[in-house]
Amino acid sequence: TNTNEPVPFANVNNISNKTNTYTDANGNFQFRSSDSVIKVEVASVGYEKNIAQLKNNAANEIRPFRVSNR
Question: How confident is the model at residue 68, as a pLDDT?
């Protein structure tokens, strides 16, 4: 299911240069890059991994999907 809610403390990997960071308590994160587009992978326990391309100097939003038991 897609909850559209921020995911706190998710692992965010910049695939382009192999650096990583974590989201804060509100699901926000920041990378500094001179590239105009970077590719990131977002992962957190209980959620499916998500890969997204982000544009530099733009508001970007990544929506991970919660893994649910059926």
Answer: 44
pTM: 0.76
pLDDT tens digits, one per residue of 33-42: 888 888 999 9
Residues contacting 8, CB < 8 A, separation 6+: 23, 24, 25, 26, 27
Question: How far is 27 from 15, CA to CA, in rounded Å?
Answer: 19
DSSP 25: T
Which tokens hold the place of 25? 């308590």
What are the structure tokens assigned to 50, written together? 């998500």
- Bridge partners (DSSP) of residue 20 are 13
Task: Give the chain's radius of gyration (CA, Å).
Answer: 12
